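User:
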Amino acid sequence: MTCTPIADYALLSDCQTAALVSRDGSVDWLCLPHFDSRAVFARLLGEEAGHWSIRPRGSFISRRAYVERSLVLRTEFRAPSGTVAVVDALASGPSADGHDLGSRAEHLLLRVVDGMEGEVEVEVEFAPRPEYGLLRPLLFPVEGGLRCHGGPDTLGLASPVSFDVTDRAKARFTVRAGDRVPFAVQHVPAGRTAPLWPAGEILARLDETVGAWQAWSDQHQVYQGMWQEEVHHSGRVLQALTFRPTGAVVAAPTTSLPEEVGGVRNWDYRFTWVRDAAFTLDALWIAACPDEAVAFFDWMAQAAAVDPEGQPNMQIMFGIRGECDLSERELEHLPGWRGSGPVRVGNAAWRQRQLDVYGELLGAAHRLGPYLADTNPATKCFLSRLADAAAVRWKEPDQGIWEVRSAAQHFVYSKAMCWTALDRAIAMADLLKAGRRVPAWSRARQDIREAIEAQGWNPDLGAYTQAFGSDVLDASVLVLPLVGFTPAGGERMRSTINAIRDRLTDPQGMVYRYKASDDGLPGGEGAFVLCTFWLAQALAVAGEVDEAQSAFERAATAMNDVGLMAEEVDPATGELLGNFPQAFSHIGLINAAWSISQAKQHQWDPARIVEGSAFYRQTCLPTPTQS
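Assistant: Predicted structure:
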């Protein structure tokens, strides 16, 4: 049974797909050619589901880091007889400049063994298992490496060493100081022959990839503030999770890593959620540049653009090319990470009603400001219709931001995001050529505010709650001041922040999404990294900067040794849980770091902050990074 801790993995990406490499040199997850393709290596979810390991034979210790300003990984293995390093990358392809990183990726995984000192016997095991481990393909040696045929995948492994081949390929060789031993595996569609790259070409592709990532970083990452290195690195992670052909950002590159060891809360996150859009755009604004933010919004608006009257429930998530049908199924042949089944592909949440998407998409449009002026008339019409839908449908129950699989409720977060939709539409009315709609939007906005204050506030708890009439605390209400619904320094919001800090945290101060709530699923989950960053951001906007900094630093302890974060943290052990790396967690880090830096610099007076979009532009909307 697979037992490698999630924190032991590092991410590789070519901005079209991703791989996870363990600390001991094993590629245990790789979907080719794209993020949502069927995995070729899936030992992450089952011991016999495929891997590719390169490591010293016998005992060793390892340490690793990304090559400066890149997502090229260098792992150093120290054995009794010497030291070798393995440099891993998904080749970016030719790049004319930093803005087209990954646009011509060749679906090529590079692994280069460098001799550092002494001599080390290295062993390689190559065991591809297409279709998430269902198939054991035919492997056969050829001059310059191996070929792999089976199912929809044709792979070519370029290798300077010979293999013993059964249902897997194995080799041993000795590496001395100064030696460079390059390997590369490439995917092509069935029926074509994958090239077997010569050593010089593999090394050139590696150099090209390092240069492409560094060019992207140099052109995009000019953020200066607190936790600068962490913000820049998280920006690279978001770029790595971006599907270059469309601009879609996947929530995570993995599926079914559990929220509780042995539990059933295991979901496929290789898709893009509308709800992430606003938070993602903020993060791209800070840690990347307007080009990435505009590309992401253009893709999102195109994917979501349906008639709200003809299709009442706006879809809440899409495939990376804009697909709507994301039907969920279980892979019964896989036991799951540490036996945490079922393993799922697809995500049934695509059918849910989540009213918050109106606010998140209109909030994303509002963030673009003048960049939206040249958008096409159809998009402007669509955004106006979204506001019309929010003005009417806010009264309905839904499944909420956390996608509960129980009965629909009147979630406070959903109502607040409908309020946000109308607030941002009013602010953009001239741009949208929708001035005549403003009176109706304004009335609905006021009705939502009154309903939240009357039914979403629990005086006994002293807090805004998860749903109308509820006594359940929910960390999603920390977003209320961040969208300008209420001042963070106001009496009710300060009381809510204190309630969450006191009663919705684990012993280490990490924040849960909610407790004691019937969400339609058995079992529990860990503390939520994003929610802890939300607490830090809300505290910053409330003027409690020292407390905000402490909350940020608690959340940042969820990073592994190469700066990657999962979705959740086990409160008992501190172990990372959930799909990995999680875009939402890195988005939370970037946005919280910026807010805390701004709070320290400007010393906001929370009592003077005005509401709505004016508040947002004053306190939460960063000036876009120029590149």
